[in-house]
Amino acid sequence: MDERRFKKRSVFLVLYLCASGSLSLKEFGARAQREGRALAAVAGRRRLPSPSSVSRYLQRVQAEQVEPFITWLLTQGSADQALLQHPAVVTRDTQGE
Q1: What is the DSSP string of the chain?
Q2: Is the Cβ–Cβ distance between 5 and 50 less than 8 Å?
Q3: Phi-psi group of 46: left, alpha or beta (phi > 0 → left; psi -120 to 50 → alpha; rest → beta)
């Protein structure tokens, strides 16, 4: 898959994961359609992909393709490392460690 199509679908997925709660891809796509161009423009895209194309894309994704992105997202993708170290989000075991 070319990089342009990957980025386009990634924008849809990030928006979906941030905003959808318990919506299906199809429901989210219908709700986002009204503001789709503006949402896509935030990421430098002209429009969001259709929910069906995102679904087909997700069916083809293999775990080893996603692992580098997950590692980056968890280690460097946060805009604020201090937030990740704040007492409200730090987990501790019963020993306080």
Answers
A1: --HHHHHHHHHHHHHHHHH-TT--HHHHHHHHTTTHHHHHHHTT-SSPPPHHHHHHHHHH--HHHHHHHHHHHHHT--S-HHHHTSTTT----TT--
A2: no
A3: alpha
CB 24 within 8 A of CB 54: no
**Whether the predicted model's global pTM rises above the 0.90 cut:** no
Measured between its terminal Cα atoms, the distance across the chain in Å is 43
Residue 78 has pLDDT above 60, yes or no: yes
Q: For residue 96, what pLDDT is reported?
A: 67
74 with 33: CB under 8 angstroms? Answer: no
Q: How far is CA 2 from CA 81, 82, 84, 87, in A?
A: 31, 35, 33, 41
